[in-house]
Each structure stands twice: as structure tokens, then as C-alpha cells.
């Protein structure tokens, strides 16, 4: 009897080994190797013909026509933006995110909204009826969207050959299996094999394919370091379940910038594109409250005004707590140490809680000054004017450092009705203060901001 071929795969990074090993030499994780069957005796390697067109031949680069403007719109501005200006034919896009974040909703919405393209939506997770119910909930009906509930790739390619779609959505890559491989759905070798079949299909036929992928608790795509290499674009859908905002980031993009991001609001009738994030992220206040500041940050290519809330209270137990949502807690500790050392605030005996409203996560260092001022405002119990805005980084010596694209930040703050903005003195170079109606406060030291705000 022919021997069953097996190999061991690291479930974290996808590395392959002929024998079991305790610690993965490639990613360093422990106990991640499991045995998977590579090939059933008798069946060869995958023999699926994914090709619709004639076989490829070598061609001169100059012979190949550049057809840049072939991108087509997904009818969703935020998704188009993150993709770098629309869907590229033949692109393989991976959409990752935690369960329940809205990946299926987003892709179904795109599938139903797109005009003039035949879409095949393949679901291995939900039944036809469930998808129908979801589509009804979204209030969308479109004749050119076909639904297929199937998990076997051989069958899927048969249907693709009959159906001839212009866009393919796979929900999700972890549910697919190919019969040329024995191991169970969602295992590394299955994911790799299925993804490479779709990669081949996308490239050979110029049909864009969206693969939905789940994310493990640790935040990495399950299985999928290897998927990240295979696909052209990796989009990450994230957000806090308790909040309505969802953010679509691009982590890798062969056809555009990775700094773009799309913002959505999850509503009872689906995801709504948020084209002007600042207006929603700022809460309207009737009276100024202590511990709240607004910072002008840049998310992707867009300026976004973000509200920071801080609460400082006396530590109830011996060890003070530091907790932060949406902001790196190590950076918060650093800023608190700066306040302690440079300005003499005794924060080491206080509990500090920090929250970025809207469930956003901010990495832009320009929020530093806003964070410090929120902390000071709560600690002094003196409100910062709700017409003031901040945009500067804070260094270890307490100096206020300049940030990039300051003009865009100032313009956004002015547009939204702020009356003053605190920026670094060193940001002033080359900007025309007289050109703005908003009052610009150039500052160079944390102490200086403190005396300006709280006297
Ligand atoms: P879903 O797209 O199923 O998530 P994923 O595919 O990423 O696992 O999203 C499910 C969540 O979205 C669910 O908690 C309900 C919510 N939801 C809405 O709030 N409004 C809607 O219109 C839809 C369709 C879902
Ligand atoms: Mg889903």
C-alpha cells in the first residue's frame, strides 16, 4: 500500500518540518507543530485547471500594455481609498478581522452595491437563506450577485467556469478544502493550497478575488503569515465591539499606499461610510469639562480630530493603576514620567485612566500634547477650553516637538470651529500664521503650556 505523505506545520507561521519539533525555529513559538496529511496515495498534486484564457508565454516587458486606469470602483469610497483608488483586476485581497467585526457584512455590501460587474459570493460559513436575510437587512437587492454555498475548491472552480464572474468573494478562506490534500479545513496546508489556487485563478484570468480570513485571539491572521506573502493586499478590519466605528487599514498593498484607512459606522442596516470622521468623533459638550482635550491627528492621509479623556484619582491601593484604551500604555507611562520629572507633578501616587473616544487606536505622536493636557486638566480639575486643540509630540526632556503635515492639522481644526491650537514652536517654520483665523500658540516646553492653560 502506498504510504500516506505527511508533514508537520507550525500553526503560527506555517513553517514546515519533516518531524515534530517543540519550538518553531522560524517564529520561536512553542508547541505549535501539528501533523497534516500532504497527499493521499493515488492522488497527485492539485490538478485543478483554474485557467479560462490561453496559456501564458514569455513576453517583452515593453510589449505588455500598461493599463493603469483599469481599476474599477467598488462603489464604496472608503474601500476604494484603502485599496489605493479602486479594485485592480487580478488582485488577490485578504480581508482579515476578528469574528463578528463585520467582514461578511462589508463584502456582501460591496457585492450587492457594485454596478455592471457580475459578482460571485462564495460562503462556507452561512447558508443561502442566512445571506438572503442579511441582504434584506442591508436593504440591497441586485440581480448580478450570485451566492454559492460550497467549501470544496474543485466544485467552486466548476461553478466559476460556468458562471464566469468579474469579481469573486470567498467567505472565508479557513472553511475551504481541496481534495488533493487530506488535512482538515483551516489547517495550514489546506489554507496554503486553496489560497494558491485562487491566486493562480486571479492572475490567469484577471479577476479580482477577495479572501476573508479570521484572526486569532492574539491578533494575527490564523494560519496566515504565509497568506500575507501570497496576496497582493492585506486589509485589516478592526474596531471595538462596544463601539460602532470600524476601521479598515491596509497592512500591505502592492497597488497603493499602506497609510490609508477607511472608517465605517456599523448600523442596524449595515456599514455606513464615514467621510468626515472628525465631526462624529467629537462629542458635543454644553459646558467645558476637566480632563478632556482634542488633538489634531493624521489618520492615513486625512486629518482627524480626536478627543482624549483622562481621569486622575488618588490610588486606592498601594500600587497606582495606569490604564489606557486606544493609546499605548507604555507611551502614557513615559509622558507621566516626563510630567513628574520636568514639572514636578506627583502622579506616581495617582491612578491614571486614559481613553480615546470612539474606540479608535491612535499611533500618531501628535496626540502626546493633548494627552498631557488632558492629564493635567483632570489632575488640576480645571477644564481646557472646548475651543482649544493640540498637535505636537512631547520628548523625554519635556520639549514640545514638531509633527508632520502641521498645516493640514491646523486647517482641519479651523474648519471645525476651533479657536486656538497649540503646536510646537519648531513647527512654525514656513507656515503663514496670518493666513489662518484660528489663533496659533507656538510652545516649546511643557511648563509653558501649563502656565498658558492653567495660569
Ligand atoms: P459579520 O459581518 O457577520 O462579521 P464577520 O463576518 O466579521 O464575523 O458582522 C456581524 C456583526 O455585525 C453582528 O454582531 C451584527 C452586526 N450587524 C449590524 O450591526 N448591522 C447589520 O446591518 C449587520 C448585517 C450586522
Ligand atoms: Mg462572517
Please give the structural blueprint.
Layout lengths: L4 E6 L5 E2 L15 E7 L37 H7 L8 E6 L5 H11 L5 E5 L4 H11 L6 E5 L3 H11 L3 E5 L16 H18 L3 E6 L10 H6 L2 E6 L6 E9 L7 E7 L2 E4 L3 H5 L10 E8 L2 E13 L7 E4 L3 H15 L6 E7 L11 H13 L7 E4 L1 E2 L5 E2 L4 H10 L4 E5 L14 E5 L2 H9 L1
Parallel strand pairs: 4-8, 4-9, 5-6, 5-7, 7-8, 15-16, 17-20, 20-21
Antiparallel strand pairs: 1-2, 1-3, 9-10, 10-11, 11-12, 13-14, 14-16, 18-19
Helix pairs in contact: 2-3, 8-9, 9-11
The structure holds thymidine-5'-diphosphate and magnesium ion (MG).
Describe the structure in brief:
This protein has about 450 residues and is of the alpha/beta class. The chain is built from 11 helices and 21 strands.
How would you portray this structure in words?
This protein has 3 domains: 5-39; 72-275, P-loop containing nucleotide triphosphate hydrolases (Rossmann fold), CATH 3.40.50.300; 280-454, 2-Layer Sandwich (Ribosomal Protein S5, domain 2), CATH 3.30.230. 25% of the residues lie in helices and 26% in strands. The protein has 11 helices and 21 strands. The protein is globular and about 80 Å long. The termini are far apart. Bound molecules: thymidine-5'-diphosphate and magnesium ion (MG). Thymidine-5'-diphosphate binds next to helix 2 and helix 3. Thymidine-5'-diphosphate is lined by residues 97, 99-105, 134, 137-138, 266, 268-270.
